[in-house]
């Protein structure tokens, strides 16, 4: 089923007309499609087929409980980076033994909770972290399964803020130091070395850097095996991109997984992947309403009710996302607009230089907003965060209600 399509000139989310959704739930609004979410996850799962492994959805991309529940019910694993994300997974019904725990700064209480519920693996990023995990595991009298995050020093060719596999980045252990690291890890009493992982960056439209990273990981796996350290899984992280722009091609998930499987099978290694964006970006849109039009000598501004606090990617990365009118119109003048929010920052824009035929009151859809959208929202300028809804055919669920001002102020006290 096509997810976000026009019927009689009106944008629909599955079988629901977007203007009806806005009438019911207000604007701005995040709208997710259950079918799109499931079908994209299923592509990964089907491609894995009977090769042993786990597709661990990167919770940071969209941590709404409704989204996690759909994926948990479909058998997904999860990649988490905090105990908060772990609790979300558990509340959504996710299985702890399908959770991998990534991140450079895991804290003692987070490690303890993850050990207590029995996660699949810690993706360790430094020696001090490994020692901390060993200590906490000793206190709890358990063994901690770990994988080492290797930094293969490959250029993922993506935005500098989301490129993670270079020596200059804070992530992982340099591949040259990895062997020594594994030997030290092997000597720790409460550590069980089970795998190796990497994550070289996000929004990759070319898989060549991932293949290069895989080569480097497998050389390491072979060297370790020769010295008696046998790993059971390789985790390639996330990173596959989506088509934000027409000239941006999303890599072929099936071909990518086939390739990795062909390299792992002869070594009897299982595969873990941590996709985020490629599962959820296309499954969501952000809907916002034009408040007023401000035409100027140099620029025309459409001021909308959504802002950088709702959808930060354009402001933070200069990210480009499609903007589509929710209702198609005829006979109106097309002009070039910057789509901006009401926040007091020049950087508060959702899109720049878009040719659109706008009028006050129009609804606009920002496409591919299911990943790194709501999760990066804030209350800047004391703006309550938008509602999130999920559609399934003609059915709609409010998966997070719109915040109220009372919600925002509830945690604050009066004067000293
Ligand atoms: N695994 C690890 C260890 C990661 O750091 C990430 C993303 C993922 C998996 C998931 O990667 P994905 O499949 O989504 O590319 N806020 C940025 C993206 C930051 C990604 C951070 N790490 C954006 O909006 O573009």
Automatic annotation (TrEMBL):
Query: What sequence ranges are listed for the domain Orn/DAP/Arg decarboxylase 2 N-terminal?
Result: 37-281
Pathway the protein takes part in? Amino-acid biosynthesis; L-lysine biosynthesis via DAP pathway; L-lysine from DL-2,6-diaminopimelate: step 1/1
The cofactors named for this UniProt entry are:
pyridoxal 5'-phosphate
Q: Which InterPro entries match?
A: Ala_racemase/Decarboxylase_C (IPR009006), DAP_deCOOHase_LysA (IPR002986), De-COase2_C (IPR022643), De-COase2_CS (IPR022657), De-COase2_N (IPR022644), De-COase2_pyr-phos_BS (IPR022653), Orn/DAP/Arg_de-COase (IPR000183), PLP-binding_barrel (IPR029066)
Tell me the subunit arrangement: Homodimer.
Family membership noted in the UniProt record: Belongs to the Orn/Lys/Arg decarboxylase class-II family. LysA subfamily.
Protein name as annotated: Diaminopimelate decarboxylase
Please give the organism.
Salinispirillum sp. LH 10-3-1
Q: What is the lineage of its organism?
A: Bacteria, Pseudomonadati, Pseudomonadota, Gammaproteobacteria, Oceanospirillales
- Which gene underlies this protein? lysA
